[in-house]
Structure to design on (371 residues):
């Protein structure tokens, strides 16, 4: 701003000085010596005609001299006016560029910045120039953007944690529900009176309602969230048999042994995987279950096998798809999420999961990464 004021004052001073020098001299007047010489020559003339001729010649010379001086002054004034106009034009252009760069450009950036913030794009910072006259002003806007970005991230993390908790609890509740339902069905078979049978049937209906509600809640939450959190840590393989026995609430597994080693796993997620696999065996095969474990290369391999009819070979690659259910499950309740979630958990634990048929039935192979 100060520089622009100095430029304007300098132009005004130059114009004043130039105008002063251009107009300080008035209209040129005839020289007094020449007038005296012309008058003396006219007096000494022999005839009046000769005196008049002398005076006329002098006047013509004087007028020609004054006209020449006037034209020179007009040309100088015209040149001066052109110079002033040119200088003002160049100065105006420079001032416009200066104000555009120093004042208008920052406001245009703020306008674009405000549009990005309004659309939810909080990752691009507001560019700031050291020569910007509004540096502190624009810096405050960028600090506001950063605070909004942090608040948005914290809100997203909080919502994600809530969804993960709801999804995890919803799916974990289904396993004890299945165990309770199995016990109620056993009590219903052993009931000796109609009153007991009616009571157990009522409990069974309520359990079905709870199971449907939990499944719907899990389904809705899973659709909204991107992933369930998995945190693999080093655990001893001696903890795995307890997880397997906890998942086998119907006690259908035979004795098994797990080699001593250290694997990478998330205990809570691994428990869910065992629950899903063994619950599927209960539901679709309802046979005894054989479990075997061995170490091969960089993995602890656990095979969980039932002795049912298995699945069609062409369906094996589809079992891990979300909501996919085989043709042999049409009359059984379910939503096709157990193996889908199990595959995600095993992958996040740096392991894997496979399904295959053999001559005795259907098997699920779990691969746990050795630490």
């Amino acid at each position: 701003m100060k520089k622009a004021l100095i430029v304007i004052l300098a132009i005004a001073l130059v114009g004043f000085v130039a105008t002063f020098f251009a107009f300080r001299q008035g209209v040129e007047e005839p020289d007094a010596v020449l007038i005296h010489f012309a008058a003396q020559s006219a007096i000494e003339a022999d005839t009046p005609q000769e005196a008049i001729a002398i005076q006329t010649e002098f006047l013509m010379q004087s007028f020609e001299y004054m006209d020449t001086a006037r034209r020179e002054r007009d040309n100088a004034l015209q040149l001066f006016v052109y110079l002033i106009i040119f200088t003002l034009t160049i100065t105006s252009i420079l001032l416009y560029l200066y104000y555009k760069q120093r004042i208008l450009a920052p406001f245009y950036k703020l306008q674009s910045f405000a549009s990005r913030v309004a659309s939810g794009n909080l990752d691009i910072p507001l560019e700031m120039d050291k020569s910007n006259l509004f540096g502190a002003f624009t810096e405050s806007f960028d600090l506001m953007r950063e605070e909004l970005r942090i608040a948005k991230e914290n809100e997203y993390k909080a919502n994600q944690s809530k969804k993960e908790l709801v999804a995890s609890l919803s799916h974990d509740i289904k396993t004890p529900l299945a165990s309770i339902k199995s016990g109620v069905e056993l009590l219903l078979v052993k009931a000796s009176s109609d009153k007991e049978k009616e009571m157990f049937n009522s409990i069974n209906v309520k359990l079905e309602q709870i199971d449907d509600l939990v499944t719907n809640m899990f389904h809705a939450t899973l659709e909204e969230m991107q992933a369930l959190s998995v945190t693999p840590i080093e655990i001893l393989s001696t903890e795995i048999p307890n997880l397997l026995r906890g998942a086998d609430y119907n006690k259908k597994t035979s004795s098994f042994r797990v080699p001593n080693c250290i694997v990478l796993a998330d205990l809570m997620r691994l428990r869910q995987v065992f629950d899903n696999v063994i619950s599927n065996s209960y539901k679709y095969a309802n046979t005894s279950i054989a479990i075997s474990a061995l170490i091969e290369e960089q993995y602890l391999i656990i095979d969980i096998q039932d002795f049912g009819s298995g699945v069609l070979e062409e369906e094996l690659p589809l079992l891990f798809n979300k909501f996919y259910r085989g043709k042999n499950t049409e009359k059984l309740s379910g939503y096709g999420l157990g193996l889908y979630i199990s595959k995600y958990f095993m992958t996040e634990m740096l392991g894997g999961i496979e399904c295959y048929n053999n001559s005795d039935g259907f098997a699920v192979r779990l691969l746990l990464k050795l630490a």
Remarks:
- The radius of gyration is 50 Å.
- The longest strand covers residues 362-369.
- The mean pLDDT is 77.
- DSSP finds eight helices and six strands in the chain.
